[in-house]
Amino acid sequence: MDTTAQQDPAPDRDRSAAAYRNLIMATIGFTLTFWAWNLISPLSGDFKERLGLSSFQQSLLVAVPVLVGSLGRIPAGALTDKFGARLMFPVVSALTIVPVLLLIPAKDSYGAMLAVGFLLGLGGTTFAIGIPLVNSWFPPAKRGLALGVFGMGMGGVALSGYFTPRIAKHSENLPFWIVAGALLVYSLLAAVLITDHPGRTVPTDSLGHRLGQAGRLRVTWELSALYAIGFGGIVAFGVYLPTYLKTWYEMSPTEAGTKAAGFALVTVVFRPVGGWLSDRIHPALVTAGALLLAALMAIVQAFDPSLDPVGTIALLCMAAGLGTASGSVFALVSQVTPQAKVGSVTGIVGAMGGLGGFVPPLVMGAIYSAKGSYSIGFMLLSDLALAGAVYAYGRMRTIRRDG
Q1: Residue 177 CB: number of other CB atoms within 10 A?
Q2: CA-based diameter of the chain, in Å?
């Protein structure tokens, strides 16, 4: 008797349909939960006026859900290895509804807002749920592009930045009701439509042991460093680019916000490009080339060019490089990590990427306060990206591909 057929009776066509169904559902869920994760930031100016907050208090309010969401990816990835995305995606999406709705009664108290922001960090953990799901359904030859398409869900942050304040103009509570309703519908659909791969290996050891094993892998920290540069750069510019454009180029808040949205859009579009290229050449080479481009553009920007056209071109090319690198790094994760540990490693790598975005804005702000220039900050960014490019080329390209 054919034991392979017994273990997995689904024909190739049905499996392909299931793979793309799971990819679509995971991407939609990632987008919606990231929108929820970023609900406070676009409205932080209103909260600052309502509650009489200082700039530091406003920054802390925005940072809490991002920090919690980044760190929360570590246990979320390990739990996905154990219980599967079929359970984790609908559960986490449904639980995220609670802090979204709690923002309504909490918005008149700073302490309550901080507490709800902590809970809202749950929405930022779905990245570590979707990566192992998509990784398991697609063969190595298609995995990079599939992971890149899933990664486009990070555009939920940009969607929130654009639509949330516009929806709030109609009614201050309307954004929360809309997002909560969308999450409810999605969690119900996800419970029906998301399926784990029939060949998924379920680990039997404890959560702590699996995280410890992932943490002892050298490649976990190598990938974390590369992702902290690529995705961390995207987060950093998402946070700080409007301030930079307003301060240095004297733009209006609206114009600076529009330019920053364009930067974010380019990073989202180029993430699957990084995955697609990684299906054709070694992802370490893609990562090295993308970070080299980002490093060169940071050097150009360090000389304070006029925004039209040199500065705009430099910033958009930098966005393309960082977006491509963030896609190719996770193509690399899928190739060098044992399938049963993908969730755990993804959680750690994703956490480091999110946390990596909070150092550059602090450095850029401190340098500008001390020197009245951003040039040193851009040169430091170029040095970091160049170091990542050299390491990706010199070390990571020697790691054997899995088939």
Answers
A1: 14
A2: 75
- Residue 202 DSSP class: P
Instruction: Please give the Cα distance from 9 to 128 (Å, whole number).
Output: 29
Residue 97 corresponds to which amino acid? I
Place of tokens 């733009």: 251
Where does residue 231 fall: left (phi above 0), alpha (psi -120 to 50 degrees), or beta otherwise? alpha
Sign of CA dihedral 39, 44, 45, 47: positive
Return d(Cα 302, Cα 294) in angstroms, integer.
Answer: 12
The CA-CA-CA angle for residues 286, 322, 343, to 5°, reads 75
Helix (H) or strand (E) holding 239: helix 218-248
Q: What gap in Å lies between CA 142 and CA 91, rounded to an integer?
A: 28
- Is residue 39 within 8 Å of 176, Cβ to Cβ? yes
Cα dihedral 235→236→237→238 (10° resolution): 40
Structure tokens at 340: 């049963």
The answer to whether residues 333 and 349 touch, using CB atoms and an 8 Å cutoff, is yes
Spacing of C-alpha 137 from chain mean position: 20
pLDDT digits (tens, 9 = 90+) for 278-314: 888 989 999 999 999 999 999 999 998 998 899 999 9
Supply the pTM of this predicted model: 0.79
d(CA 163, CA 356): 26
6's tokens: 């017994």
Tokens standing for residue 263: 């930067």
Show the tokens assigned to 123. Answer: 């929405």
**CA atoms of 338 and 343, how far apart (whole Å):** 10
- What backbone torsions phi and psi does residue 54 show, to the nearest 5 degrees? -80, 170
User: What is the C-alpha to C-alpha distance for residues 323 and 263, in angstroms, rounded to an integer?
Assistant: 10
Q: How far is CA 381 from CA 19, 21, 47, 313, in A?
A: 38, 39, 32, 17
Find tokens 């063969």 and name the residue: 139
SS3 156: helix
Helix (H) / strand (E) element for 150: namely helix 140-151
- Please tell me the predicted confidence (pLDDT) of residue 179: 96
CA angle 63, 65, 66 (to 5 degrees): 60
Q: For the segment 346-370, what is each residue's pLDDT rounded down to a tens digit?
A: 888 888 887 887 677 667 777 877 8
What is the distance between the alpha carbons of residues 118 and 134, in angstroms, rounded to a whole number? Answer: 28
